[in-house]
Amino acid sequence: MTAQDQVLQKTTLGVYTHVPFCASTCDFCAFYQKQPNREEIKRYLQGIQTESDLFLKNIPVDTIFWGGGTPGLLMPKDLDALGQSILKNITNRPTEWTIEMAPSTVKPEKLKVLKDLGVTRISMGVQSFNAKTLEGLGRLHSPKQVYKAWDYIQEAGFQNTNLDLIFAIPGQSITEWLTDLNEAIRLSPAHISTYCLTFEEDTKLYVKLSQGKIKRDIDQEANLYERTWDVLENNGYRQYEISNFAKPSQECQHNVHTWQMHEWIGIGPSASSQYHNKRFTNPASIEEWLKGIETGNQAYIDTETLTENTLALDSLIFGLRMNTGVNLPVLQQRFPHFNWQQLDHIIQTLTESEHCNLTQESILKLTSTGRLMADSIAKYLMEEIE
Ligand code: SF4
To answer: How far is ligand 1, taken at its centre, from the CA of residue 33, in Å?
Structure first.
């Protein structure tokens, strides 16, 4: 049994904190974020304090993940206040604590506060080392700031690091992408995430796409995916999920636990939770979120009571995105009331079309071709499974 299978048999708890502030909006961004003012940050931190007191009191937590937005935009004293709100409630030190930081926000005094709090992992949104590509994405930072930030992170002694990169950006050549990738490898972080650019509605890039100002090249995207997987694998970064690669034992535990459908509590506006057999999401508005927190009457959206069917289906969908695949006997043990017979024809279709392999140990895995079609396969599973 692999380490991931063992984790599947034990429920872990993660805490996700959404920090909804950014200095400006990137052209591809569909996350809830806004430009902050001092008063709003103050109210946000008070809201987090109250929400942590309500939901995190006396509970043991395995992992913490601060995402956004740009959590690193907060001043050192605000980062400390955010961390203390959580630490004063939970009963233990998490084994992994990640913060997402934009290169322009990485400063030694912030890293010191983070280290003192117990943050273990810095995930930096580099996106590209190429000034022209960064400009095309509407990112504010420069390649020079990336290198400066990287030096600060090294000097502060953070070993567990991730660099986020984006590929298939309109105007970006294959050579430019491979140069970006090799530059990330040269810096030697513990983990690299590579995301194919997506065009979400309500983003500036989507508008440009709709107006025909930029074009998507699906064949090129598939080509870049495969080249990326080869280059990273050949340089010691094992792929463990479609977009995620790590040196040995450096996978992001928080994300792995989420994809394995364990529990997490999301705090902050727009954060989602999966906790005590329920899924629910905070409103994507600081005002609405604060109103709920302050009155003790949270205005959750998309509240759903979880069934074995939902959890089994989501474990299949997200499990298939991971290279270890889905260990069917382990899942059957975990969700005994799910109708497992209905999977027979699905597995037959997916293996006959060479999108999946089923091993002798009944582990279902995507093939390389299947990995390129993961979204369509997820859609197929959702349509076929009752
Ligand atoms: S920094 Fe991240 S959250 Fe903020 S606008 Fe850019 S992509 Fe969106």
So the answer is: 7
